[in-house]
Structures are given as structure tokens and as C-alpha cells.
Amino acid sequence: MFIEIIDVIISGLINGSVYALMAVGLTLIYGVSKAFNFAYGSFYSMGGYIAFLLFGISFFNNYLIVFCLAAPVLLIFGFFIEKLLVAPLRKRDDWEVKVMMITLGLALFLDNSYQVVFGARMKSLPSILEGSFEMGEFILSYQDVVIFIFSLGGILIFRWFLNNTRTGMSVRAVAQNPAGAQIVGIPKEFVFAATFAISTVMVGMGGILLAQKYFITPAGGWDILVKAWVITAFGGMGSIKGGLYAAFIVGMLEAFVGWYFGMTWTLIALFAVLLTTLAVRPQGLMGKWG
């Protein structure tokens, strides 16, 4: 029993670290633009499929190469999608609602495109590192350790970017006061596009990491979208620190509920905790009243 509980805790921490990497991107979009991206889960699937294509080419059968090639592709894709589909809507009334509708349409388009190109059958990626650490009955795979390290590394790089680069500080300024940021000369339109692009990279990287443990499917991103939304609302809309805490809480809760009751109960448990939290503290763990 004790070994099982340790395994569940480790599984929760590993999944929570990847959820944190992905949920922070969605939190960032909402914090800057106050709009919700319904295509976020489809970008998760895109990361997995890009890695699947690269691994099909023998020269690119190394995860470091895959990450280095996939990241700029996702960054450019996110940047141009924002410029082509989202930016024109900001000149209209109720543009936040229109953004939700157009990103929902984009999600359906991407998911159906995945099915046409890759087929409906599940795809998988090879393990990032074979082998495991064993101590008695306790077994920890090297793959899980690397996934945890990569996820935390991505979060730390993101934090460094926000605090130490001109673009990152511009993102923070626009999130705190859009009008004031524009007055002092910060290019708000570029910040919106950069935020969308960076969040696309973060969720795509999460898709590559989790594709080693779970299968890639055309509609598999919807489950991630729901979890990312729960984490964002649970932590506090627009609060990056709250999103990080909420991601690990959700990861642990998911692991324990799946272990004790079965995986079919995990989403029910997540929404139950979310609704309870919002009933007691509507602004989330670390959100603020608007």
C-alpha cells in the first residue's frame, strides 16, 4: 500500500509539472488579452503530431533535435494565427466573444485536418529515455524523471523570459495596464501576437512530453483544454502563480482519484473541486476581483 501511494504521488507530480507548463500558457493569454483560446487543445495535439513526423525521419530520431525543430514551427504558427485570425477581431465590439468563436472553429478545423492527414488511429512516440531506477518494490522510470525535469525547465525559462527580457517585461506591462503600456510606447499588438505564439509553444511542448505516456489522437486535445481551463479558473483567471499551484493540485487529485476510484471519475472530481472553490472563493486561489 505504501509503495502504491508513493507511485501515485510521483505520478501526480509528473503530470502536474506538464499541466503547469501548458496551463501557464493559457493563463498568459487570458491575463494579457482577456480572451479564451478554444484551439489550445488542438495546439497540444499539433506538438505531438510534429514530433511523430520528425521521428518518422531517421535523421531526427533524437528528442533534443525534435524539441529544437518543433519549437520554432509552433512559435511561427501561433504568431501568424494570431495576426491572421485574432488581431482583426480586436477592432470590433465584443471581440473577446468573437475570438472564442473563431478559435473554436479553428480547433474543429485542425482536429479534422489531423484525422484526414494522420488517420483516426492512435499514434505514439518512443520513450525519451529507457530504463528505470529500482529500490526494492519501488520503481521509477527514467522517462518520468526526464519529463519532470523538462517541464520544470520550461517553466523556469518562461519565468526568466518574463522577468529579464524586454518582450517579457512588455507582456507583464500589457497584462497589468494595457492603456498605460500603449501610452509609454509598448507595441501592444506585437505583445498580443507574441503571447499567443509563446503559449502555442508551451502547450505544444507539453503535447510532445505527454505523447510518450499517452497516445496522440485527432481529438485528444479537448481533454487537455478542459484540464487547462479548470486549472486556469481554479488558480485564478490571469494569475500565473495561481495556475502553477493549481496545476500540481490538479495533477495530484487526478492521480489519487484515478488510483482509488478509476480514471472515469477524474474529470468529475476536478469539476467538483473547481465548483466548490469558486463557490467559496470566486476569484480562484490567487486571482483578484476585476
TrEMBL record:
It holds the Pfam family BPD_transp_2. CDD domains: TM_PBP1_LivH_like. One of its GO terms (molecular function) is transmembrane transporter activity. Its main location: membrane. InterPro entries: ABC_transp_permease, BCAA_transport_permease. GO terms for biological process: amino acid transport. It is a multi-pass membrane protein. One of its GO terms (cellular component) is plasma membrane. Keywords: Amino-acid transport, Cell membrane, Membrane, Transmembrane, Transmembrane helix, Transport. The chain crosses the membrane at residues 12-32, 38-56, 63-81, 101-120, 141-162, 190-216, 228-253, 259-280. PANTHER family: AMINO ACID ABC TRANSPORTER PERMEASE PROTEIN (PTHR11795:SF445), BRANCHED-CHAIN AMINO ACID TRANSPORT SYSTEM PERMEASE PROTEIN LIVH (PTHR11795). Belongs to the binding-protein-dependent transport system permease family. LivHM subfamily. This is Branched-chain amino acid transport system permease protein. It comes from Desulfocicer vacuolatum DSM 3385.
